[in-house]
Amino acid sequence: MVKKYTRVVMLALAAIMVFSCVAMAATTIPEIYAKKPTQYLTEKNWAPWSKKIINQMFDAFGRNNVNYNPENRPWAMFDCDNTITLTDVQEQLFIYQLENLRFAFKPEELYKIATAGVGNVHADLGKDYNHTTIDKLAKDTVKAYTRLYNKGWVAADNSKVGQKAKWMATDDWKEFATKTRLLYDAIGDSESVSVSYPWIGFYFTGMTPAEAEQLAYESHKMYVELGKADVKNWTKKSWESPKMKSLAGQFKVSFRQSTGVSPEMIELIKKLDANGIDVWICSASPVTTIRGLQRYYKFEGLRGMKCMTYKMKNGKYIAEYDYDLHPQTQGVGKSETFVKTVLPLYDNRGPIFGAGDSQGDFNFMTEFKDTVVGLMMNRVRKDDAGICAAIASWQDDNNIDLYEAMKRGEIRFLNQGRDENKGEYRPFPSSIMLGKTEPQLLHDKAKEWRKMLDNGTTPNQLLNQCTKLTGKLKTYIGTKVR
């Protein structure tokens, strides 16, 4: 009888403990998140308003906010080139690829790659390109590449690197490298970035994704170490094609070198995640390039990425964009891609935070109704990014904090300054551009837009006039509407 009684009591106690645990779990899940203190930005080179507003965002939307739902976290959307990174990592990778002859296609495939997506390869490129054509430039690169290839210097991996000094001293390499890099500029100028941005990734043709990612990793590693080795490496470099018989003639092309990710940006990504806010990258660079960057930096807090994607045949890339996955991740395509592939993960809520630097980021930073903060890497732009910079300047001077901007139904834009000659942030909203010594806050065009705000135009009204103000977009869906 005693044993039976004891057994009943034990079962009852066990049941009580089970129900207590369930109840406790149900009531303490939010408490688990709340017990972690909010982590604020502390790095020294944040501009004051950047630090203040982002820290306010952590309070307003982070895990310690009373409305925070750990099952449906808020999220942030970042551009990569010139935003997360201090320069364009895909353009740097292209230089690395050319210098090291890291290609996986045969000479007979090159003309198709070099002209892919171009509407009229015989169109006159104008005075800046000595009135040559894409066709002539492409054919010159094919001839030079063929000679380099036949000497056994071309490979997808780094197995030929021991002979690099030999090929870089040849006229064939100078011809191939200079005119291939020039093609990127010529296509962007004569067509549009919707042609040149995917085009640069077509030079992965014949590689597996793993080979392309390894190439990207090696490029990032080299250029980051170059920038750290000497501040003088944050500069421009140039190549010149030789005086030799060719269809297009002789050219010189210049480009930036060195890259990196600032301590401030690494901190921002990490602390967004620490405060319960997911981080996504949306880049106009190929996805393998950004995967290589993630592999090198091991960003803490990155949830995922949507970048340029290419079709494959037999497990290797071909020179064709893969629209079956999503639109091009540049311009309005960034917004469209995230509407299609990411918003469904968040009950169709948009990002609360956007970070960008140029025209290609304007749409995603302004169109989503849930966006409350827009961080602009200040590159003193005269395109639609300059409109955002003008608004940030006006909001700073009028002491508008995050809560006031939200009350007005506006995005609180921020200008984050950088010194491009040193590859580092400045604790100011103004930037020192490459080759300059004095800081600059706004382009002359953006100063005109700032005056419109001073005269009564609201930030949202200014954004919605973008098609008239810059003409960069033929149509604009509107501010805070998606």
Question: How would you describe this structure to a colleague?
Answer:
The protein is of the alpha/beta class and 482 residues long. The chain has 18 helices and twelve strands. It has helices at 2-34, 48-61, 89-99, 107-114, 134-150, 164-168, 171-190, 193-201, 209-229, 263-274, 287-297, 332-341, 362-366, 384-397, 402-407, 444-454, 459-464, 466-469, and strands spanning 75-78, 236-240, 252-256, 278-286, 302-308, 310-313, 316-321, 353-356, 373-377, 412-416, 418-419, 424-425. The strands form four sheets. The protein has a six-stranded parallel beta sheet, sandwiched between helices. A hairpin with a 2-residue loop joins β6 (310-313) and β7 (316-321). α3 (89-99) runs antiparallel to α7 (171-190). The relative contact order is 0.13.
Rg from Cα? 26 Å
Distance between the termini: 70 Å
Mean pLDDT: 94
Q: What about the largest sheet?
A: 6 strands, parallel
Counting helices, strands and paired strands, the structural category is alpha/beta
- Report the helical percentage: 40-55%
Strand content: 5-15%
- Helix-strand topology string: HHEHHHHHHHEEHEHEEEHEHEHHEEEHHH
